């Protein structure tokens, strides 16, 4: 509007306006207010197009909603669903464990998963950028997430490498781990003693695959087979993520869906095996008294926490490529329940197969001990009168053996221990809890050797593990690369290749002969406590610093509906309280449990718990400290203005959204001027009102807008604090120039 305008003159001089609206319009020359000097960069009298937020602002986007859901499912559903969840069910009361798990999924898992999806989708940045915007002083949250992603990615891909090795070893019949190797000593052939003392699958894992040492202090040099497998694993991951979501999104169509095909095939095949029903019945028979133990609730909370991938940054990174109006609440509920039902499906498969294995091992035990009893009968150590007439040793059943065992134990009470007889109870076999690599590479692998067409099932199983691991690794790598690409102008392909090369070189630590022990160390210490701290700070920064009411309003603006009020109380009170209890329990558990690892002792052919040496113990605590170190460093640096708050790196879409809102503000103000209203008056009903960002001190800021730096008033807001008073229009002009 020209400076000679009566409206401007009256406004600046604060004189009482006596003319009517008609008089004002009669004295003013016609003017298109969109071409006025209030529009930055426009000469007076020249029109410029209104700023609009384009559908494609330059940030990559998912090709379809299905692709995005599969990516989130692939990231959250990983190896832990197959070998951790079934173990926790078996250990913590079978079906009774599902009750605390489901409750904690509802009050911790889904709300926090929804929170991460929402902030990533709203701000459209990776983990570092998101928390810089929500609260710059807590910007270290994103950096800690990146550190944890790096640590986890290093050892997680080693597990994929192990699966690749077993995958290629499965293309032979019989499977190489089905029988113990024979050692020839001249004309005498004997079974390998280490294998004879343990089992064929155990020997193949520890000796022929890992060739492990007896302690973590013995390096033993690089294991060439595992080094090559790790190299192949990193090449696969690099090719999957080298183009960002353009390449990883396509990979997810297969890597996320194929494991379900394999699990359903294994379930059908497992139910046809003898003893599978015994395993499933054992699994789902609830031991309700277990539900009263605090340890079960702690382990259920930890499993919920890690099953959804909270705190890693992958969830935020994936959601940042969504459209602003995507229904992330639906996504959070859908992915969480898919994850839960996948764990149930995997548990059914595992216990069906382990029930079959338990029956085989029990029958083997009965046969071996039956031969012992026959030997004692023939040697007159035991009387034939002790054997019931219906017992036939040529077809000795578990129930018949149980009768004979009970009679002998009663009669030979004093010398029974010398006989060396075992009870051979099926329940004891089913109670042998196995988790992690012991389940995948020993117990489950041994069970598959008894399958008809065992190589086919072995190929399918390890190919499933590769795909499960690949889906999680894609999310982990995205959690690393997305924040870096958001902050720096780096070529995506070059960054991805560089990360993979560095990760492979660092991963050589895990493919030396003692590498298995370092995998255990990183799994125990690099992620647990740091990630829990990261997530509780995420929760606090949104619910208490940014404000739950404000966040709920942001969600309503973004989704088009207001989420249930339940989320308000969950984010504000329940989730932080549960996370504080979980952190306390984790610290107590670490304090009372001696830090150590299970080492394979070659002479004994069995595992023995060993404490970490001092240097390894220092390494354990260094992993925790390094992962959490960015939190205090960033806080102190920004508190004393030693570090930029990152507001000058707003994403393109976020910046353009603010520009559009400011343009709308200018139109509203000019309309008020023309109609004789004061700028502070209520806007016209015909003018759309949207939340917008203005310099600090301007009361027209919508308290419900998700503005970066809102918790400490830093960055561009500070520049306006000490500046002399200016008109609103000049403030807006100055702000847009700084943009």
TrEMBL record:
GO cellular component, one term: synaptic vesicle
Binding site for Na(+): 74, 77, 81, 339, 468, 472
GO terms of biological process kind: alanine transport; glycine transport; L-leucine transport; proline transport; sodium ion transmembrane transport
Residue stretches spanning the membrane: 68-86, 98-119, 146-168, 228-246, 253-272, 300-321, 333-354, 456-482, 494-513, 525-546, 567-592, 612-637
Annotated keywords: Glycoprotein, Membrane, Metal-binding, Sodium, Symport, Transmembrane, Transmembrane helix, Transport
GO-annotated molecular function: metal ion binding; symporter activity
Pfam families in the cross-refs: SNF (PF00209)
The name this protein goes by in its record: Transporter
NCBIfam families: Na_transp (NF037979)
Matching InterPro entries: Na/ntran_symport, Neutral_aa_SLC6, SNS_sf
Subcellular compartments: Membrane
Top-level division of the source organism's lineage: Eukaryota
Main subcellular location: membrane
């Amino acid at each position: 509007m020209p400076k000679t305008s009566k409206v401007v003159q009256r406004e600046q001089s604060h004189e009482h306006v006596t003319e009517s609206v008609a008089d004002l319009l009669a004295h003013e020359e016609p003017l298109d207010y969109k071409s006025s000097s209030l529009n930055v960069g426009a000469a007076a009298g020249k029109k410029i197009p209104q700023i609009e937020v384009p559908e494609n602002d330059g940030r990559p986007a998912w090709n379809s909603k299905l692709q995005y859901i599969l990516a989130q499912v692939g990231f959250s559903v990983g190896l832990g669903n197959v070998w951790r969840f079934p173990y926790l069910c078996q250990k913590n009361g079978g079906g009774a464990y599902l009750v605390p798990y489901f409750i904690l999924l509802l009050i911790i898992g889904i709300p926090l998963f929804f929170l991460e999806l929402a902030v990533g989708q709203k701000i459209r940045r990776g983990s570092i950028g998101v928390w810089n915007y929500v609260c710059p002083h807590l910007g270290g949250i994103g950096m800690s997430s990146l550190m944890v992603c790096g640590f986890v990615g290093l050892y997680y891909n080693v597990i994929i490498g192990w699966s690749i090795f077993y995958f290629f070893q499965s293309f032979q019949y019989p499977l190489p781990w089905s029988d113990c190797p024979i050692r020839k000593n001249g004309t005498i052939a004997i079974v390998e003693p280490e294998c004879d003392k343990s089992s064929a699958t155990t020997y193949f894992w520890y000796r022929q695959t890992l060739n492990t040492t007896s302690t973590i202090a013995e390096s033993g040099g690089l294991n060439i087979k595992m080094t090559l497998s790790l190299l192949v694993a990193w090449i696969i991951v690099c090719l999957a993520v080298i183009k960002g979501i353009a390449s990883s999104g396509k990979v997810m169509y297969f890597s996320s869906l194929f494991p379900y095909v394999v699990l359903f095939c294994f379930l059908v095949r497992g139910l046809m095996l003898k003893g599978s029903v015994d395993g499933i019945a054992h699994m789902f028979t609830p031991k309700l008294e277990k539900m009263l133990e605090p340890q079960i609730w702690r382990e259920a909370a930890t499993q919920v926490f890690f099953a959804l991938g909270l705190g890693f940054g992958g969830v935020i990174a994936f959601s940042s490529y969504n459209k602003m109006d995507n229904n992330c609440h639906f996504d959070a509920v859908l992915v969480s329940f898919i994850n839960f039902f996948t764990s149930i499906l995997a548990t059914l498969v595992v216990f069906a197969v382990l029930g079959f294995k338990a029956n085989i091992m029990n029958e083997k035990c009965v046969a071996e001990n039956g031969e012992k009893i026959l030997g004692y009968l023939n040697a007159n150590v035991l009387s034939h009168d002790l054997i019931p007439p219906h017992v036939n040793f040529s077809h000795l059943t578990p129930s018949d053996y149980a009768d004979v065992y009970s009679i002998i134990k009663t009669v030979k009470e004093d010398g029974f221990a010398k006989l060396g007889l075992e009870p051979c109870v099926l329940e004891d076999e089913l109670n042998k809890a196995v988790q992690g690599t012991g389940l995948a590479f020993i117990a489950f692998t041994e069970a598959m050797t008894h399958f008809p067409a065992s190589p086919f099932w072995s190929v399918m199983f390890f190919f499933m593990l590769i795909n499960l691991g690949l889906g999680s690794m894609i999310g982990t790598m995205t959690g690393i690369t997305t924040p870096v690409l958001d902050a720096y102008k780096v070529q995506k392909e070059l960054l991805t290749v560089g990360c993979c090369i560095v990760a492979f070189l660092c991963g050589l630590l895990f493919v030396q002969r003692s590498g298995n022990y370092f995998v255990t160390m990183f799994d125990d210490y690099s992620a647990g406590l740091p990630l829990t701290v990261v997530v509780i700070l995420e929760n606090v920064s949104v619910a208490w610093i940014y404000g739950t009411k404000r966040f709920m309003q942001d969600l309503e603006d973004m989704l088009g509906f207001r989420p249930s009020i339940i989320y308000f109380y969950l984010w504000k009170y329940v989730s932080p309280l549960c996370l504080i209890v979980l952190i306390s329990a984790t610290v107590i558990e670490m304090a009372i449990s001696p830090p150590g690892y299970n080492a394979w002792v070659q002479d004994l052919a069995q595992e023995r718990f060993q404490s970490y040496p001092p240097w390894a113990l220092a390494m354990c605590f260094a992993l925790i400290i390094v992962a959490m170190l960015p939190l205090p460093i960033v806080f102190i640096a920004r508190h004393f203005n030693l570090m930029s708050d990152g507001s000058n790196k707003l994403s393109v879409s976020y910046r353009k959204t603010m520009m559009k809102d400011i343009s709308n503000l200018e139109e509203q103000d000019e309309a008020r001027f023309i109609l004789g209203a004061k700028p502070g008056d209520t806007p016209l009903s015909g003018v759309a009102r949207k939340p917008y960002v203005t310099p600090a001190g301007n009361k027209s800021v919508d308290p419900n807008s998700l503005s970066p730096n809102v918790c400490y008033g830093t960055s561009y807001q500070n520049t306006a604090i000490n500046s002399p008073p200016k008109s609103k229009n000049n403030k807006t002009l100055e702000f847009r120039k700084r943009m």
